[in-house]
């Protein structure tokens, strides 16, 4: 689910950047540091705006200036039970992998409807029910997350398409 | 899924079960108590006055379930006393957690890394097998793996296919990053243009390799006939790629080899997913069962566990001296020095494309005066010497032990270094330059010798370094087809017999049941490639007893060397000593003067062949005709032979005698066991030798001569041994010039007339004659034929032969003291002069005494 979230961050600036456009530099650095990262619980998708850039404080010893910046960001936190759209990246006999934006997820063959079977002889290999559902690399699928786990710098999810309205997205 | 829970070892036994909190059929949750028990223990108690005593305490505790599910059956009763750990309850688990991705169960989505007081074991341990080609994060349990594999086998059986794991580098392609290749490709005038014009190339931009090698072009040469090979083989096999290159590299190669992704699909595994830096393992892809898997790889040592499934392919070495760009971190290839003849072929004759021509060439070369041979043999040295190979010392260290626990980074770094070296040093360019240079020299030599044959041989004005004449794939295709057939023949037979049995059994039963049973029976009767292939291979050299000479370092245990293991797998028997049972002596082309060769030469039935015979036989899976591979007995031995034939028949006896004294003496102090064999030798050889050129009288006198020879031997060093091989030497096409030289040397001996007439003295005389001849030949060797050989030999010639091609090299190996090859020609260089003097002296004395006798 997406959220607008107020966050705060310490940004340091090298003395060589001290000057008139310091605030822009700080904002720029913030964008560079933060956008697209995963904190372990959510992904920071984009920063809407910054406010409240504090006065810089020189860090003793290094000479860097530290600013405390408040900002508003769009974050995405995948929840268990959430339905997301994803693109298939790899298909094998145990299941298939897909990316829902920054989130890699895995759909095991146990969580695929029994009529959709793995066909290793097809090129490329695919899951198919020999009708309208063909899941191969690049297919858009709608999946339901049934488990997520965070590790340093990334999140992973287990998903299912064994429910109504899940699976291959037609005409996309 | 049924599972049994056990109490665990951490409880304070004995315990008494006081209450079962759940009944069969009840649902249980993780961390939920399902059982109450009590136990007694001693507590140490003290009072304020410092007294201590122990009191018995009874504690009641809960036992919490480590898993979710439903209880099926209790195996203990309330009130029972349990003495130690046991499985006490059957439960039906909600989820077996048999597929896990990044620490999550792929079936229920639970976090598997979570630990609690209740968990008995780490849940991540339940799914440990990594069997997916392109993923390392996904792991499955054993049951899941065998299920998947069973499915795979069923499918393969249905399609009548097998699995084939294909290595890339040097097996189906050869890659290099030498920029010279690009230059040659662009330059239509280059002698190598023809060969490299269809070389594919790609760039790996996003790979971890930094520095110089980061943006280089990879040049990929497909093995000749690859496309046809793969498309043919794909009908019989499901193909997998298993390479030690990186993933990006593997994908790029696959794109070149298989543009429509029809052959390999996604079944590509690279070193990024391999999980082991130095070895490949079928268990990575087929964790449960490898009976329907065949491997083709140019290296056998990286498959330590899967040898029965492996077809070892002759490495494809198109870009000479480059080797495998993705194996710089592997232990050095432990390969027999086989490239010598192959290179010889490659670097001298341009048009040689097929085996027969090559061997023909081999014959002409060796029977020439040696001029061409010399040139030939220089060439193979070149790539060896300045190719980007690792130094000899490093090689030894590497072979010495498994030093490769290098991490992936280290691996990448090493490869980077290797690649950079290739980029900066441009070994190919140097080799071509050298080749051109050699060519000029060669031309000069040819003119000098005025040998029509050789001149004809080398009329090609411009030599190209790279040859596109590899035929391995045709054999390989044949083997794979053959193997496939054998496998399914076996399978069909087994199927029929299984059917027969079952049909008889289940005749009244209904059909459906039978078919179900069929299915399950199917897999049990599937033959194992690991049995089928060795059986096929073993036919190849069955009945051959092979001794190797000059191919394996002496200190190495021959049975563990690559070549021996391979030969064994082809049904040959390997011996370390030459004896009567031996059928083939495989000698190195560069070292044809070892003791084993000489010993073997005594037996007529032993075929002395070069290593190419063995290699070709193993490559073709059929015993090659030995004739083209017969090793030319050394020139000196040829001389001897001529000597016997033309003028000194009696000397055969003599040489035998002397060798007897010698061999036994030598062997005696090295390995006592060998004496038996020597004795055998003599039994086998003596009669023949005598028959050849002796009157029976010799036998009577033989004893004395032996003694005398011994005496001589102690003076002369072990020189006499050289004569060993003459007695039974293979008939060799010898050059006229040699013959004439040889006879020249024999003629001056006045003894000659006496030889034929006076049997009594013959032994003596011929010994001397031999010495004399050797002495002569030494001196003549310096002034006669001017060949590159002679230049080489003068410098380090240990034996008094006229042309001791590779003797220097020979010795280097022979001298290693532990081996079974004796070092007979080693001590010579020192005693040469002395020897000559002595001989002259001896002869004079002998003659005098003779004259005295006669008078």
TrEMBL record, chain A:
Pfam families per the UniProt record, alphabetical: S1 (PF00575), SHS2_Rpb7-N (PF03876)
Keyword Nucleus: yes
Organism: Hyaloscypha variabilis (strain UAMH 11265 / GT02V1 / F)
The name this protein goes by in its record: DNA-directed RNA polymerase subunit
Ranges where the RNA polymerase Rpb7-like N-terminal domain occurs: 9-63
Key words of the record: DNA-directed RNA polymerase, Nucleus, Transcription
Superkingdom, taxonomy of origin: Eukaryota
Signal peptide start-end: none
GO biological process, one term: positive regulation of nuclear-transcribed mRNA poly(A) tail shortening
Family statement drawn from the similarity comment of this UniProt entry: Belongs to the eukaryotic RPB7/RPC8 RNA polymerase subunit family.
Residue intervals passing through the bilayer: none
Annotated S1 motif domain residues: 78-153
Entry function: DNA-dependent RNA polymerase which catalyzes the transcription of DNA into RNA using the four ribonucleoside triphosphates as substrates.
Keyword Membrane among UniProt keywords: no
Molecular function terms, GO-annotated: single-stranded DNA binding; single-stranded RNA binding; translation initiation factor binding
Main localization (coarse): nucleus
Cell compartment(s), UniProt: Nucleus
Alphabetized PANTHER family for the sequence: DNA-DIRECTED RNA POLYMERASE II SUBUNIT RPB7, DNA-DIRECTED RNA POLYMERASE II, III
Gene3D superfamilies on file: Nucleic acid-binding proteins, RNA polymerase Rpb7-like, N-terminal domain
Automatic annotation (TrEMBL), chain B:
The FCP1 homology domain, residue ranges: 157-336
Protein name (database record): RNA polymerase II subunit A C-terminal domain phosphatase
Domain of life: Eukaryota
Acidic residues composition-biased segments: 657-669, 706-727, 804-846
Biased composition (Basic and acidic residues): 349-363, 691-704
Span of domain BRCT: 536-631
One GO location term (cellular component): nucleus
Catalysed reaction equations from the record: O-phospho-L-seryl-[protein] + H2O = L-seryl-[protein] + phosphate; O-phospho-L-threonyl-[protein] + H2O = L-threonyl-[protein] + phosphate
Annotated Polar residues bias: 774-797
Gene Ontology MF terms: RNA polymerase II CTD heptapeptide repeat phosphatase activity
Keywords for this protein: Hydrolase, Nucleus
Cellular localisation: Nucleus
The keyword Nucleus is assigned to this record: yes
InterPro entries, per the entry: BRCT_dom, BRCT_dom_sf, Fcp1, FCP1_dom, FCP1_euk, HAD-like_sf, HAD_sf
EC number: 3.1.3.16
Region annotation (Disordered) ranges: 340-389, 642-674, 690-855
Organism taxonomic ancestry: Eukaryota, Fungi, Dikarya, Ascomycota, Pezizomycotina
Chain's role: This promotes the activity of RNA polymerase II.
Main localization category: nucleus
Enzyme class: hydrolase
């Amino acid at each position: 689910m997406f959220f607008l979230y107020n966050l705060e961050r310490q940004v340091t600036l090298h003395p060589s950047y001290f000057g008139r456009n310091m605030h822009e530099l700080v904002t720029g650095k913030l964008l560079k540091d933060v956008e697209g990262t995963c904190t372990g619980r959510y992904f920071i998708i984009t920063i809407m705006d910054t406010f409240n850039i504090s006065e810089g404080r020189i860090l003793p010893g290094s000479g860097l200036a530290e600013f405390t910046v408040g900002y508003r960001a769009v974050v995405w936190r995948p929840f268990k039970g959430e339905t997301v759209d994803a693109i298939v990246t790899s298909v094998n006999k145990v299941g298939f992998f897909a990316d829902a934006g920054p989130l890699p997820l895995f759909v095991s063959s146990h969580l695929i409807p029994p009529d959709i079977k793995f066909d290793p002889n097809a090129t490329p290999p695919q899951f198919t029910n020999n009708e309208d559902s063909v899941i191969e690399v690049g297919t858009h699928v709608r999946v339901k997350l049934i488990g997520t786990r965070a590790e340093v710098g990334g999140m992973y999810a287990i998903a299912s398409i064994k429910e109504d309205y899940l699976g291959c997205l037609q005409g996309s | 899924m049924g599972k049994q829970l056990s109490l665990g070892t951490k409880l304070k036994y004995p315990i008494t079960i006081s209450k079962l909190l759940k009944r069969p059929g009840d649902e249980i949750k993780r961390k939920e108590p399902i059982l109450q028990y009590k136990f007694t223990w001693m507590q140490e108690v003290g009072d304020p006055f410092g007294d201590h005593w122990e009191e018995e305490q009874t504690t009641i505790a809960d036992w919490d379930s480590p898993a979710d599910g439903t209880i099926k059956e209790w195996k203990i009763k309330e009130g029972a006393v349990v003495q130690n750990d046991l499985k006490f309850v059957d439960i039906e688990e909600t989820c077996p957690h048999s597929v896990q991705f990044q620490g999550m169960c792929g079936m229920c989505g639970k976090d598997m890394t979570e630990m609690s007081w209740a968990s008995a074991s780490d849940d991540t341990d339940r799914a440990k097998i990594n069997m997916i080609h392109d993923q390392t994060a996904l792991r499955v349990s054993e049951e899941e793996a065998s299920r998947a594999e069973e499915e795979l086998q069923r499918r393969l059986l249905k399609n009548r296919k097998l699995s084939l794991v294909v290595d890339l580098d040097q097996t189906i392609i050869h890659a290099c990053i030498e920029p010279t290749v690009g230059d040659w490709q662009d330059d239509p005038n280059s002698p190598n243009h023809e060969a490299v014009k269809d070389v594919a190339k790609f760039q790996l931009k996003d790979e971890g390799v930094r520095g110089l090698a980061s943006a280089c072009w990879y040049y990929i040469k497909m093995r000749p006939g690859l496309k046809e090979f793969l498309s043919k083989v794909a009908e019989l096999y499901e193909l997998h790629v298993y390479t030690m290159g990186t993933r990006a590299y593997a994908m790029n190669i696959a794109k070149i080899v298989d543009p429509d992704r029809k052959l390999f699909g996604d079944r590509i595994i690279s070193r990024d997913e391999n999980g082991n830096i130095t070895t490949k393992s079928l268990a990575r892809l087929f964790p449960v069962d490898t009976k329907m898997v065949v491997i083709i790889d140019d290296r056998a040592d990286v498959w330590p566990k899967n040898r029965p499934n492996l077809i070892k392919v002759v490495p494809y070495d198109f870009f000479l001296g480059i080797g495998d760009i993705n194996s710089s971190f592997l232990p050095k290839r432990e390969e027999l020095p086989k490239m010598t003849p192959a290179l010889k072929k490659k670097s001298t004759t341009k048009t040689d494309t097929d085996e027969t021509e090559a061997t023909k060439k081999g014959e002409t070369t060796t029977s020439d005066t040696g001029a061409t041979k010399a040139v030939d043999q220089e060439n193979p040295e070149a790539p060896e010497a300045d190719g980007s190979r690792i130094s000899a010392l490093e090689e030894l260290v590497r072979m010495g032990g498994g030093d490769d626990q290098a991490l992936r980074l280290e691996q990448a770094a090493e490869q980077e270094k290797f690649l950079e070296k290739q980029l900066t040093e441009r070994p190919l360019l140097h080799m071509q330059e050298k080749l051109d240079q050699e060519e000029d020299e060669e031309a000069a030599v040819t003119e000098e010798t005025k040998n029509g044959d050789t001149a004809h041989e080398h009329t090609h004005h411009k030599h190209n370094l790279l040859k596109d004449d590899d035929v391995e794939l045709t054999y390989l295709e044949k083997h794979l087809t053959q193997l496939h057939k054998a496998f399914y023949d076996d399978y069909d037979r087994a199927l029929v017999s299984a059917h027969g049995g079952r049909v008889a059994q289940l005749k009244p039963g209904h059909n459906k049941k039978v078919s179900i049973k069929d299915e399950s029976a199917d897999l049990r009767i599937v033959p194992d490639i690991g049995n089928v292939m060795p059986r096929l291979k073993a036919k190849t050299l069955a009945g051959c007893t092979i001794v190797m000479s000059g191919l394996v370092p002496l200190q190495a245990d021959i049975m563990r060397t690559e070549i021996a293991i391979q030969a064994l797998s082809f049904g040959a028997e390997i011996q370390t000593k030459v004896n009567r049972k031996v059928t083939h002596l495989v000698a190195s082309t560069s070292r044809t003067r070892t003791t084993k060769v000489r010993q073997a030469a005594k037996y007529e039935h032993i075929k002395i062949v070069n290593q190419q015979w063995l290699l070709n036989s193993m490559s073709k899976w059929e015993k090659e005709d030995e004739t083209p591979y017969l090793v030319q007995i050394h020139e000196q031995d040829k001389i001897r032979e001529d000597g016997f034939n033309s003028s000194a028949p009696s000397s055969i006896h003599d040489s035998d005698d002397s060798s007897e004294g010698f061999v036994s003496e030598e062997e005696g102090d090295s390995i006592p066991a060998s004496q038996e064999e020597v004795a055998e030798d003599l039994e086998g050889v003596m009669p023949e030798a005598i028959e050849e050129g002796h009157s029976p009288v010799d036998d009577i006198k033989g004893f004395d001569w032996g003694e005398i020879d011994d005496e001589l031997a102690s003076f002369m060093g072990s020189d006499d041994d050289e004569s060993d091989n003459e007695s039974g030497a293979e008939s060799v096409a010898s050059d006229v010039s040699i013959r004439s030289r040889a006879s020249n040397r024999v003629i001056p001996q006045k003894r000659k007339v006496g030889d034929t007439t006076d049997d009594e003295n013959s032994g003596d005389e011929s010994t001397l004659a031999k010495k004399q001849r050797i002495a002569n030949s030494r001196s003549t060797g310096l002034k006669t034929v001017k060949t590159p050989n002679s230049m080489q030999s003068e410098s380090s010639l240990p034996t008094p032969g006229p042309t001791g091609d590779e003797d220097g090299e020979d010795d280097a190996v022979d001298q290693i003291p532990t081996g079974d090859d004796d070092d007979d020609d080693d001590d010579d260089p020192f005693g040469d002069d002395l020897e000559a003097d002595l001989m002259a002296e001896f002869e004079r004395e002998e003659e005098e005494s003779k004259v005295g006798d006669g008078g």
